[in-house]
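Need residues for this backbone.
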């Protein structure tokens, strides 16, 4: 009896993790494999499993709307990552000065992260609506010639998504940097102050360079958010005007479910997957390499 109990205790962690492992294998990796297979077929409304080669990918690369979505992803991703990183770092440096009401201020900055992107997109859609929001408010103040029509301007609509995304995610980046700042040894800062270095120079030469791992983690997380952004675009612009603010995620949804081109949408989904992997694989490689040398 004791031998059975010992054996059960030995395999108890594997038994506890088995359901989660099976669920991940089926509902994550299984569906990735299924999507990849469907992308190689001529599936329309319903999936078909007879392979047709890379025709869907060739058609995808010949589609002008796909390249608009990719261009928008470059614009949105680069600006989203840049402003979230800069604003998050500045807010973290501000809170690192041990100012009064730090907890309340930190909660205010982190509050947008508690909202879903649907709520964020809906709120900013109201605020940027030319007939209801910012433009109308400023005109009521007496500036009747003021215009801010980015939401309905095909050239500027993608930048409204940047504004809403930065507003929501900067607080999260601030929390990452603040944790990194609080982890720096104070003796290094005190030694630099004894040597006569001012606070701006200490941050520029010592503290910010030591936050390199935090920068890397923040960029990885923000890149992942940018690539899979869907609900924010749907709530704010619906990909419009026209498809001028489309991103790959909204492109995939539109062709898979609205136009009943399942194979074509699966091909675009796989391209998004490859984009995410192009970010995650170097990150995992650098982490494993640092642990091996550490």
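Answer:
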């Amino acid at each position: 009896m004791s031998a059975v109990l010992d054996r059960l205790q030995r395999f108890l962690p594997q038994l506890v993790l088995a359901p989660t492992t099976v669920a991940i294998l089926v509902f994550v990796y299984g569906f990735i494999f299924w999507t990849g297979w469907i992308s190689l077929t001529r599936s329309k409304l319903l999936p078909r499993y007879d392979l047709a080669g890379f025709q869907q990918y060739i058609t995808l690369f010949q589609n002008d709307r796909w390249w608009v979505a990719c261009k928008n992803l470059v614009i949105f991703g680069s600006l989203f990552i840049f402003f979230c990183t800069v604003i998050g770092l500045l807010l973290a440096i501000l809170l690192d000065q041990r100012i009064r009401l730090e907890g309340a201020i930190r909660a205010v900055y982190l509050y947008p992260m508690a909202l879903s992107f649907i709520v964020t997109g809906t709120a900013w859609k109201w605020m940027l609506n030319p007939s209801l929001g910012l433009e109308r408010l400023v005109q009521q103040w007496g500036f009747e010639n003021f215009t801010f029509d980015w939401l309905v301007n095909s050239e500027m609509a993608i930048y409204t998504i940047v504004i809403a995304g930065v507003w929501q995610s900067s607080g999260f980046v601030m929390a990452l940097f603040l944790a990194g700042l609080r982890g720096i040894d104070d003796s290094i800062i005190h030694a630099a102050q004894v040597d006569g270095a001012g606070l701006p120079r200490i941050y520029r030469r010592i503290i910010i360079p030591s936050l390199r791992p935090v920068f890397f983690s923040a960029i990885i997380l923000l890149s992942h958010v940018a690539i899979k952004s869907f609900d924010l675009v749907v709530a704010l612009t619906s990909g419009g005007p026209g498809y001028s603010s489309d991103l790959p995620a909204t492109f995939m949804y539109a062709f898979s479910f609205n136009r009943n081109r399942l194979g074509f949408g699966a091909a675009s989904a796989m391209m998004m997957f490859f984009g995410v992997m192009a970010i995650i694989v170097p990150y995992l490689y650098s982490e494993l390499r640092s642990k091996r040398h550490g």
